[in-house]
Amino acid sequence: MKKEDLPKKIAVFPLSNFIIFPKTTVPLNIFEQRYVDMINDSMKTNKLIGMIQPKLSKNQNPLNSSDLHKIGCLGKITSFKETEDGRYLIDLKGLIRFKINNEILNNKKYREYEINFDSYLHDLNDQKEELKFSDLKIIFKDLKTLFEKRGFIINWKALEKQSLDEIINALAMASPFSLEEKQALLEATNLNIRKIKIAEILSTYTYDQYNNTTLQ
User: Fold this and answer.
1) According to the 3-state scheme, what is the secondary structure of the chain?
2) For residue 213, what are the contacts with CB-CB under 8 A and spacing of at least 6?
3) Is the pLDDT of residue 92 over 80?
């Protein structure tokens, strides 16, 4: 996608327990009617929707826009299938992060926002960076240990064939980090900062491990 093709407004899917990163693709099972409507409308136009994480607590309403994080990720529907019971199974590819500005009043069951991409245009850069495993050796070592302890299976050989940003984004999204930690990774301005933050988060897990405390 080119800068000039970016939308000024998007339908936003505030999905709890879910974060998508640029240059990663994830499957979604859409069953709630308002989001079935949202996918229908998206498929008729640009196939774009915005994924964003609600900030929830016991006393907060997930439908209140003030309870959404400000930073989300624009995704494009790359695969679409309707089930016999009316659900949609889609694949969503992360394209570029966005910041929400204002909510748009509408008569739809789902929400739409004016958004901007100014701080994240580099997400659209397709230039492949040369993978330097020496630079990521410690991160990979600690991540592999953490993934294995949590029962996560990662095809590391397949990852090695991808670009540096694809690897870091995929690991950040799939990692057993908390949602707050993943949101911090999503909001990291660039790849280098995200790599550093992964290392910082891993150091706390490693510290807990060495002190024989239970990893939460």
Assistant:
1) CCHHHCCCEEEEEECCCCCCCCCCEEEEEECCHHHHHHHHHHHHCCCEEEEECECCCCCCCCCCHHHECCEEEEEEEEEEEECCCCCEEEEEEEEEEEEEEEEECCCCCCEEEEEECHHHHHHHCCCCCCCCHHHHHHHHHHHHHHHHHCCCCCCHHHHCCCCHHHHHHHHHHHCCCCHHHHHHHHHCCCHHHHHHHHHHHHHHHHHHHHCCCCCC
2) none
3) yes
Q: Is pLDDT of 57 > 60?
A: no
Delimit the domains of the chain by residue range.
3-124, 133-210
Cβ proximity of 7 and 46 under 8 Å: yes
Summarize the confidence of residues 161-184 as an average pLDDT: 79
**C-beta contacts of 204-213 below 8 A and 24+ residues apart:** 205/142, 205/146, 206/142, 209/145, 209/149
First to last CA, the chain: 39
CA R_g for the chain? 18
> What global pTM score does this model have?
0.77
Please give the residue that has the higher pLDDT: either 131 or 56.
56
Quickly name the fold that domain 3-124 has. Answer: 2.30.130
